[in-house]
Write the structure tokens for this entry.
Amino acid sequence: MSGPAGLPRLLLGIGRRALTLEENAALHGELHGRDRPERLAAEVGRSGLGGCGGAGFPTEAKLRSVARAGGRPVVVVNGCESEPASRKDRLLLERLPHLVLDGALTAARIVGSRTIIVAVEEQASRAADAVALAVAERPELARRGFVARVVGVAGGYLSGQDTALVAALGGAPARPSLTPPYPSERGVGRRPTFVSNVETHAHLALIARHGSGWFRELGSAEGPGSRLVTVAGAVAQPGVVEGENGSPLAPLLAATGGAGEPLRALLVGGYGGTWVQPEYPGPAIGRGVGIVQALPMSACPVAEVARVTAWLAGESAGQCGPCVHGLGSIADALAELTAAGDVSGAYRRVQRWCEMITGRGACAHPDGAARFVSSALCVFAEEFDDHARHGRCEACLRRPVLPLPSKELLAA
Amino acid sequence: MTRTRLLLDPTACTAHGLCAELLPERIVLDDWGYPIIDGGPLPGELEAAARRAAKSCPTLALRLARERR
């Protein structure tokens, strides 16, 4: 098996509207779907594909765990792209819905499922419509006994966390639960459930066609293939870029027209990610959530970080003490530091609390928020010091650069 | 051979703090009164105290997990 060389892979042939079933087949070839499940699973294993939603869990292991659990498994395409800056999953669902469905059908074949749920945030109506149309283009699915449907899930930062999504799909509040049991053992309707990010499914669609050898032609041995990254902030053309897994930041920024103004820092991996210097040479793609946000020199990093941290604290599901109290305390201390200077040792407390809460929630929300804050304390040490001495700076009053969901969307 | 570890369900814990009093060797409280737990294998001499700590948890958030090696 082989396929087209180089990049783009997932974004091949992407246009301004959704590709039809025929166009999808003309681009990538038909998905004949007759491979034996075991053979497909082994191929996914050899490809080294890991989940593209942030955690990077090996896809083969998750598929096999669902297949092993027996019963009537469910396949969930997780399109709850709740990182405020991320656009990659919505782009795939809106423009390339058939590629995503092909991936879901591949997963369904491996685990022995006939139920496919594409979960999108309620406000992502264009994505939901595109997928519903794509399903309607495939009447043979129903004849073959498949149920494929789109489900809108109330938005929120944790809506895409897999156990929270499973809860929401079962009609319960979208709150993470302690694992085990994992969704692969007990998921939607207590059935074994394969939950994976939209992009993971799209990669599965191509691995099923072109094989693991082709998949590994790009990327590194540990992080093979390509990855989608949303590049946002102070770049000339913000948008979704497909890059080689493990690639450094510089070519990504170049692909989006380069920095629009002098950059102060880059945030890699969204609001649960890590701040780095603009000239950071290490691998940027394949690290956590696929987002790179460019913070310009003109912004106040202390005010930006304090504002996002307050939002992250508010997005806690409210279940685990270290998350509720820890993030709340960190956010309050950062607000104090930003506005009034470090009158009570706030900086040291924030440092200590970030360590204190890590690893102590049912989900990774406190860990991500702590990573976001503690890496900011390092990268912006100078600005934090300045704020500690003098309080608010001139740049604090500028319009914030880091996006948060607008109030209207939250209310909708 | 089996090993025993402490397992906490953070969604159930409401910071009563009894566990830290009963098993200070393995449990300390954070700044908000929630337990920070050393989840490593428990030595035999701590097992009885650990069991008492788990039994005393008013919300049943703490338990002992036995695993075969």
In short: The first strand of chain B starts at residue 2 and ends at 8. Residues 29 and 35 of chain B are 4 Å apart (CA to CA). Helices of chain B lie at 18-22, 44-56. Chain B touches chain A through twelve residues (CB under 8 Å).
